[in-house]
Amino acid sequence: MRLFHRGAFPLAALLVLAVPQTAHAAHGKFTFQYDVAGHTRTAALRDPADGACLDVTGSVGASGRAAFARNLTDGPATLHMSIDCEDDGVALPPGGSHDKPFKTVRFG
Q1: What does the pLDDT look like over 17-62, one tens digit per residue?
Q2: Is the Cβ–Cβ distance between 103 and 63 less than 8 Å?
Q3: Under a CB-based contact definition with an 8 Å cutoff, are residues 83 and 104 in contact?
Q4: CA-to-CA distance for 92 and 99, rounded, in angstroms?
């Protein structure tokens, strides 16, 4: 008994290629500083997903804006003042740092 018909293998290969791929991630960490009750804290996002708008201070249970960022990932990041990443933003290449306030970040 044959398990595959001759035409089944190419069809199976096409189905594998048609399955949506998982989101890519920037490998490494993105560090930022923020203020809590007058004390500066440092936090990091590790291997952040591409395309998602991430609220950096919200990710650590804080509010307000971050004051410093360092992109130690292998992908570009865009820093935004808005909560929804809808403003123009500031590009931050891999290895780059930024010392102005921002609220959200998007990778990719």
Answers
A1: 443 444 578 899 999 999 999 999 999 999 999 999 999 999 999 9
A2: no
A3: yes
A4: 11
What are the start-end ranges of the H helices in 53-103? none
pLDDT at 21 (0 to 100): 44
Rounded Cα distance between 52 and 16, Å, is 25
Q: From start to end of 1-108, where are the E strands?
A: 28-36, 39-46, 53-55, 68-73, 77-80, 90-92, 97-98, 104-107
Nearest partner of 34 among 63, 14, 70, judged by Cα: 63
DSSP tag of 60: G
pLDDT at 12 over 90: no
